[in-house]
């Protein structure tokens, strides 16, 4: 008799389980053949049941799959009875099989008994009074998986359902599988440890972690922020538990001043420097000042220090995001709403929170608009900006990241984007553990802030496809990685929590003191843990025109150069009432929703073009500089549904040989062919310019080529391969089993709507 207590340290169940066994136990040749390489890391089978039917369609059972359903201490696995044919139509994950779901990815575990008409949502330590005939798994990556136990033993089916529900509700953070997996991985790979982003960790680390002064020093030098310095006042987290140990502060502020001021901020969070504009203006984020008596005094001192850091002693503006943007509850309810419409196919939104929520597209527009207004202050007004939020750990993460993405092309490269997330989310103390609800303890704290940010990034990519080095596949995979509890990036609420848990982890796993935490518990940026080198090339955008990219003009290869725009002629003097961030009867920033035509007050009888309107008019009147300032268009028709993310599992939305992937396929082949020719030119060793080029053995080795789709031989047909669909590199096959969406708002959208105007409109559009 096995007890959960031996593995999970919680309540002992009163039902029997089979003896523990490892997934790589040679019980069946077909099962062994389909096990992943990572199963050597002691993944434990908690329970299993044979003769399970995985439903592919709710309408018919002809395409259903038969196999074994297994619950381990990491994931739910479905091992097919018959070996499937090898497919090329989806990513091959090194840690997860095609039919695997990480336990942290499960949102709801629902058991059904058709004969008795009963249904129950299972949680941890719950009993099940009926034998289930079906198991429905609702996943956080929008999948809906359905398993039927027609031929399975009723008791075995009940046990595996209870095991899945129990293990998907861990009692404590250290019980997540990553703490077991990374410990074994470290010792088994000691001396030959994997690389991060293709480089030896800390030897040539491409993505800085920002847990040491040198990372911040490089960022200060890169942005020419001469008025700022790295400060160690929070070393060992002496001042704030949610701030990083090293922060960047104005040179004019002494450490003793910072210690005195810190007690007045929420959670003692001192103002954080984010980024410096080439004109000297700075982007700063700050928590609210808890003492209203001291608020004006402390704010004035902070504003004065930031003003001194500016070469022209320019003004400082403050934007209170709590007052002008949706809160985390609004964001959560709007996301639930769009998920219901896209995935579940609701004919109407029956829940009260859907009725009163703001639409997801409206939330995206609000954040992009406000970020654009901050850009105007930094770039157009030449003024520093403070982003203020009560705790400085949610909305500030989204807006500060978007502002830097719009202004700095460095953050639109793959490594730069990862460093942006590391700096503005991970080290700034975003509550990933609570907002992702990994422990499923408090649904009220759950909110998809990071998902909102990724959707905003996709909106910009959709409008400026050549400005980003990475692809929407990369963004989608990054969002999925939140639900794989093996990386330090998305597991913790703060840098201190991360550091303390990893110190304890190192002691428990006999890891030598002083070993780099990025080595023994790496971040998600070590993509080699999840994907092969070949599959990682799906992250590379063939249209990218950033640093290092080249174009051919008149037969010559030329590199792109960034053009510098000057808006000083279109910006008028700042009113004295707004100087140094202090209000004088007017708002410190333009009103919410004021962009382009919306910048004009409705009550104004005379329409006079304001400096901000002129700024954006000048910007949009010229061709977009893909390596310069980028502001997205924000009319409702410009904000689209991110189809690859929201509709990748929807069979009705899957277009064979259609969608953006067809253009991606052709462009990748073209870029690969160009790079082969460039490599051959570099190998040319002719004695003189007029001589005949020597034949080259070919381009770079296949494993060093950047494109996923390689240049095809001249005789090959130009048609895309059969496995390409609009859902590529994902497949809806068996990942979304629910009733037909015929007659629902999403079906009407798929059947002819060209513009996703608003999820609010679709939700109210009843049959």
Automatic annotation (TrEMBL):
The Myotubularin phosphatase domain covers: 210-646
Cite the record's Pro residues compositional bias ranges.
690-700
Stored InterPro entries: MTMR12-like_C, Myotubularin, Myotubularin-like_Pase_dom, PH-like_dom_sf, Prot-tyrosine_phosphatase-like
- Region Disordered: which residues? 685-721
Task: Please provide an example of a Pfam family that matches this protein in its UniProt record.
Answer: Myotub-related
Per the record, the GO terms for biological process are:
phosphatidylinositol dephosphorylation
Q: Per the similarity annotation, which family is this?
A: Belongs to the protein-tyrosine phosphatase family. Non-receptor class myotubularin subfamily.
Protein name (Swiss-Prot/TrEMBL):
Myotubularin phosphatase domain-containing protein
